[in-house]
Amino acid sequence: MYRRLFFIFALTMLGLMAMAFVLNRVWEFAFGPGGGATATRAPSAEEVAIAKRVEERRAAEEARRERLRRHRESGAKSGRQSEPLGSDQFDPRTGRVAWTERLARDEFQVPRVEFEQLLKELGTQPDNDEIRIALRGIVDNLQLQLDDQIQDLPTMEFMESHRFLRRLRDSVRPSRGTSN
Questions:
Q1: Which of 28, 163, 155 is nearest to 85 (CA)?
Q2: For residue 41, what are the contacts with CB-CB under 8 A and spacing of at least 6?
Q3: pLDDT recorded at residue 138
Q4: Which of 30, 111, 130, 169 has the fewest beta carbons closer than 10 A?
Q5: How far is CA 68 from CA 59, 106, 109, 145, in A?
Q6: d(Cα 153, Cα 146) in Å, to the nearest integer?
Q7: How many C-beta atoms surround the C-beta of residue 8 within 10 A?
Q8: In terms of DSSP H, where are the helices of the chain?
Q9: Separation CA 84–CA 132 (nearest Å)
Q10: Which residue ranges of the chain lie beneath pLDDT 70?
Q11: What whole-number distance in Å separates Cα of residue 164 and Cα of residue 48?
């Protein structure tokens, strides 16, 4: 008799486990892994760190754009226009630019080379405003890159490079009434 009760008990437990397994699969199919609308998986520490870095980068990029916009507006409002670079610092015919010590470093190499190549092209087409606008865009990117390093630079070195970039930007001003 005990054997019979044990056998019935074992079959019942096996049936209940199979039923629980099937119900679990149906639930996951209907609501996804982890449960229904109230059950959500907490993000891992790595996911939180990645999301934080992405948000910090987005905020930094937005802040850089805002600084550049304010910088441009302040220059336009004050009517401040720096003197363009002299021929000893800037020669569009040869594409030669006498970069400051900071801007001659490796971290600025890619935009520097791109600028000098476009500058040589401008030497052959001096009235091409598209090239001038592209050159000003490269100078703006160099300015943003320099602004990112402001905390790590001595004040005078930053100011010298900043002034140089402003004068360089004015040296490639479009000849017509282009707004850039």
A1: 163
A2: 34
A3: 92
A4: 30
A5: 14, 23, 21, 11
A6: 9
A7: 10
A8: 2-31, 45-78, 109-124, 129-148, 155-171
A9: 14
A10: 34-40, 71-82, 175-180
A11: 41
Cα–Cα distance measured from residue 165 to residue 84, given in angstroms and rounded to the nearest whole number: 10
Supply 25's token pair: 């699969």
Structure tokens at 31: 């609501």
Q: Are 69 and 94 in contact (CB under 8 A)?
A: no
Please list, in sequence order, all residues whose beta carbon lies within 8 angstroms of the beta carbon of residue 36, skipping any fewer than 6 positions away.
27, 30
75: its two tokens: 């220059």
Contacts of 43 (CB under 8 A, 6+ apart): 51
Contact 117, 111 (CB under 8 A): no
d(CA 56, CA 62): 10
Which DSSP letter does residue 64 get?
A: H
User: What's the token pair of residue 159?
Assistant: 């100011």
